[in-house]
Amino acid sequence: MVKITGVNFTPNGKIYYFSPGKNADKYQKGTGVIVETARGHEYATVVIPLKEIEDERLVAPLKPVLRIASQRDLDAVKRNAERKPEAMRLAVEQIQKHKLNMKLIDCDFAFDGAKVVFFYSAPSRVDFRELLKDLSAIFKMRIELRQIGIRDEIKMIGGLGPCGRECCCSAYMPDIRKVSIKMAKSQNLSLNPTKISGMCGRLMCCLEYENDYYVEASKQVPKVGSEVKTPEGKGIVVNVNMLKMECRVKIEDKKKDIITFHDYPVKDIKFRRNSEREESKDGEEEKENI
Predict the structure, then answer these.
(1) Which residues in the chain come in under a pLDDT of 50?
(2) Which of 9, 43, 92, 286 has the fewest CB atoms within 10 Å distance of its CB?
């Protein structure tokens, strides 16, 4: 087990692990600290004061938390934040001057003020060599232009999702999670792109939240269109509610030429469960391999 302190460099950003050293007790949640990174010294905020994790979860040797940020450090961070609006304005002017097909999203000044990173989105690759020269001459520091995807763009600028709340990615998600159309299918959602897509035009992040429950629940309910035994006789499943664990069954009485629909709790009907199908299928495959 290794002791770590977790920090992030932007609000709701990705959490990075650092070695707390001897002053671990001083690093409380929300405390501003100075850490050592590959880019030099950086300002960060503590989100995990002190924690022990398994050695296997570390992909590289931990760099240290150097100290708690002083007032001088906080003033430097404030100055860098105040420089951003003017830097964005100047960069947009230069982009328009060079007639480049790119959209400026944000910029970030290094803690020591020796470098600025501009984030942009573009439909294709952009030749910004001349732009880079002009920006270097204006700011008189190292300039980096970094292209980002549409999901990262929305995470940076934020906005309101179809639910009316702030986008999950910008509100509290440290990492952008993988979401697939299979998740929407397992939750019996409409596959209409306008209903399951977020501001970024990609599948909504919230589809992943309840996916584990629906995957397990789907193994305990019959499939739509399958035949089941109910207290009133055999019928065909026409709808499944995996939250209430209920099924709507169509029962046809051919003698009286009557069709009725009934809602039954899953526990009150008999059917071959999906988990049993999978087990029998696996057994058949094993026999074939033997």
Answers:
(1) 276-277, 279-290
(2) 286
